[in-house]
Amino acid sequence: MAGIGFRLQRLLERGTTGSQVQALFYSAVISSGPWLISVLCLGLLTVLAPANLGLRALEATRVTIVYCYALSLITVGLVHMVLTRHVADKLFAADDSALVPTFFTSGAVLVAVQLAWGLAAGALLEGPILYRLTAVSLYIIVSLIWHAMIFLSAARDFEAIVGAFAAGSAVCVGAAWVLGTLWGWIGFLVGFTLGQGVIWALLACRVLIEFDAERVLDLSVLGAFRRYPQLIGVGLFYNLGIWVDKFAFWYGPDGRPVISFLYTYAYYDSAMFVAYLTVVPASALFLIRVETGFYQAYRDFYGAIHHKEGLSSVRARHRALGRALDMGLGDVLKVQGAITGLCLVFSDAIASGLALPPPAFGMFRVGILGAFLHTVFLTLLIMVLYFDLRLEALRLSGLFCVLNLGLTLASQRMGFAWFGYGYAAAALVCLGLAYLILARRVRRLLFLTFVGQPVLVPTVEEEASPGGL
After folding, report:
1. According to the 3-state scheme, what is the secondary structure of the chain?
2. Exposed end of the chain (fewer CB within 10 Å): N or C?
3. What does the pLDDT look like over 11-22, one tens digit per residue?
4. pTM over 0.85
5. Of the candidates 176, 203, 227, which is a domain's last residue?
């Protein structure tokens, strides 16, 4: 699914400062679009909130949006990896016409499931009916945005994708301000939801424009869940692992209820969400440089085998693949490591400038380090999946989820000064294990590739024929 990365790379290779800035900007929005845009919109809306909204109302809106994003990401995780693999298989088979039918089929199933879950959760919420319906709508719309981005990772027109996020963000801010002024905090949430709806509508139109379709539905996508059951768990556990430490703090001894079952812990939330912004450059770099370089070497290696090139050529491609892996990981470590280091040095100034509460400063520093380690782990996990090590990826994502929860609970027992270390430690352990798995796979790749080929046993007729084996 590195297709859009190659197109962004061509923009980067023009060599001008403007084209490089454009490429990095587009890459950042595409790789981190949904949550990045939401964080920026929420920050802007907090500053520009209508005068009739109090702090309590703003908190209720913000917490509702955070839960919609968290729960939608976790539940869409059940289908995300499977759909990504199915779409990649279709593209590899040059069956581009299957993408739109797959988009409609999987989208319809996703809406039905998310609507059922959303209505069940909405029934437990307190507050006016308009608030509960809006919360359910936002949950479904955000789920559909995650879903659309799976297909658009193979798109050609990256400017249109960025334009969709820009247009939707403008509607988010404008509609939230106008409706918040008229209807209070519920109007504020309605306006934000309308903006997210615009983002999804434009992204869905982009899918229909990018890919031709000869039919409306493609039920073969349902069979992908039987073929790749491990990927269901990978998507679920990885995305749950991102949020499980937040849940531990929300429903822990320091958590505070805001609306019904929606809890928050402001210090940890603000520190971690801002810390995640520091790894946006790594996400952009991965899309535009790391994955494309690794994929090129990966494709060349298997292409050499497919085209029956000589052993010396295959070995050269194997060495190039190992170098591409090391270079890709090295690029992430160097670039993001430098940014993380600077952020750590100036963490107090950054936290103060962003108006984080002083008790969150220490958590922010740990969060910066944890987000860096998490990004490196994700980079390695994606490369593990390139080699189709689905069981290993499932174990890694499950371990990340369990460790993040267990170590976070342990840090809560150890005291305030340890908050955030559970997340960072979980990412570090899984990063190390992922590297060992990947390094061993690459080292033994020639042996495993050829041993894994089917053994052809000649028939009686072939043995009897002059050309038989």
Report:
1. CCHHHHHHHHHHCCCCHHHHHHHHHHHHHHHHHHHHHHHHHHHHHHHCCCCCCCHHHHHHHHHHHHHHHHHHHHHHHHHHHHHHHHHHHHHHCCCHHHHHHHHHHHHHHHHHHHHHHHHHHHHHCCCCHHHHHHHHHHHHHHHHHHHHHHHHCCCCCHHHHHHHHHHHHHHHHHHHHHHHHHHCHHHHHHHHHHHHHHHHHHHHHHHHHHCCCCCCCCCHHHHHHHHCHHHHHHHHHHHHHHHHHHHHHHCCCCCEEEECCEEECHHHHHHHHHHHHCCHHHHHHHHHHHHHHHHHHHHHHHHHHHCCCCHHHHHHHHHHHHHHHHHHHHHHHHHHHHHHHHHHHCHHHHHHHCCCCHHHHHHHHHHHHHHHHHHHHHHHHHHHHHCCCHHHHHHHHHHHHHHHHHHHHHHHHHCHHHCCHHHHHHHHHHHHHHHHHHHHHHHCHHHHHHHCCCCCCCCHHHHHCCCCC
2. C
3. 555 656 666 666
4. yes
5. 227
